[in-house]
Amino acid sequence: MPEHLFPALVTPPTKEALRFGGRGLTYPELAAVAGTLARRLEGAGRVAVWATPTIETSVAVVAALLAGTPAVPVNPKIGERELGHIIGDSEPALVLAEPGAALPGPLAELPRIDVELTGDPVEPLPEPDAEAPALIVYTSGTTGPPKGVVLPRRAVAKTLDALREAWAWTSGDVLVHGLPLFHVHGLILGILGPLRRGGTVRHLGRFSTDGVAAALASGGTMLFGVPTMYHRIAEEAGAKPELAAALRGARLLVSGSAALPVHDHERITAATGQQVVERYGMTETLMNTSVRVDGERRPGTVGVPLPGVEVRLVDESGAVLEGSDGESVGEIQVRGVNLFTEYLNRPDATAEAFADGWFRTGDMATRDADGYLKIVGRKATDLIKSGGYKIGAGEIENALLEHPGVAEAAVTGEPDPDLGERVVAWIVPDGERPSEQELADHVARLLTPHKRPRVVRYLDALPRNDMGKVLKRALDG
After folding, report:
1. Separation CA 172–CA 406 (nearest Å)
2. Helix (H) or strand (E) holding 183
3. Which residues span the domain enclosing 447?
4. Please, is 108 exposed, middle or buried when counting C-beta atoms within 10 Å of its C-beta (0-12, 13-18, 19+)?
5. What's the predicted TM-score (pTM) here?
6. How many domains would you assign to the chain?
7. Structure confidence by residue, pLDDT tens digits, 55-90
8. Which residue numbers delimit the AMP-binding enzyme C-terminal domain (predicted)?
């Protein structure tokens, strides 16, 4: 018989499971509420979830998982065209939403169940097979229409158990975060992770440093965030003793979804004594690597492979890079228990994504002698071939952020008749605008001359998505 995805909902402890602001559910209450809803969803086929940052979204997804019904989380800020594609592609039988939520076009036409926080204790439904679909999470669609990533229950369970081992994550942990609930980070790690452990989630609803400080100071032990959140923490922790003290008292601070600049790592450590842990994952793979809680914390790295995950670096010819010199750049390819099953309705894309059973991530990295990976960027947008050198944009961005006149930085490549590609820096100044020559000299001094930006363009802000990732395709070359 398959292992239960949420053992704590089978024999519920009396402790709190979920809290969103002033509303919370204990484990017995969650088991009753989600179990009652699961009975209504049994055999329904796929269900869409209007994934607002609320307790109702959490209940809806848990109920779908208890029923063995694949859930399709939908971004509440989604545009009409993308929503139409997702609904047409996944064909949900119905939509789950918080009472009173106004749903747009294609969702409003579906049968709807309002998620009510009521229910009586029910006998748990049989646990589905480990390979059964748990969630269908749509990619951001940067290279075409979003693809539906079919995540089996096995991948969810194995990833969360690997993080338990890497982070010493227990039922005693209280996780604080304010992440969206339609992505892997906020939903699978941030909601399902604590529930699988039998721990507690305190969701901030909307991120604020004051909210973080209050939640951590009142018993929170872990914080999940993305770089834009940690950048605000880095900016404010030195001037807010209560924020610094709350962070200092946490057991673990974790950053993900994009690289956290080394400069922000250093500022947070200086203000709090804490060293932020980074991990690396994707929608298709869930989590691949992490800095371990009992390992050395090296700013700018994403640690070592998690249990059950194999990682290799491959050069442009497809040859596996042997050795770990910390300099050779290769594409990360992974295989293991964490992988998705397929892209929904896209056997062509599924086949193209794999090489001999290894998933091609499209992310480029170096690996040092201890096996620590350092992400240097995306193969399509962050690997710059200039003057015969392969240059990772991330390294230059970190160097630029060390300049006192730089608040934000992004680096891209653009065609150059002499170099092949030239390095372009997109800068949001911090105060007085540093000159192009000043920034080029700064990078050349910290790194090497061939990595210096040849062109600097100044912006008021960098374009970012909901998870704080810079949208480099929106930067005009």
Report:
1. 41
2. none
3. 383-474
4. exposed
5. 0.85
6. 2
7. 999 999 999 999 999 999 999 988 888 899 999 999
8. 395-469
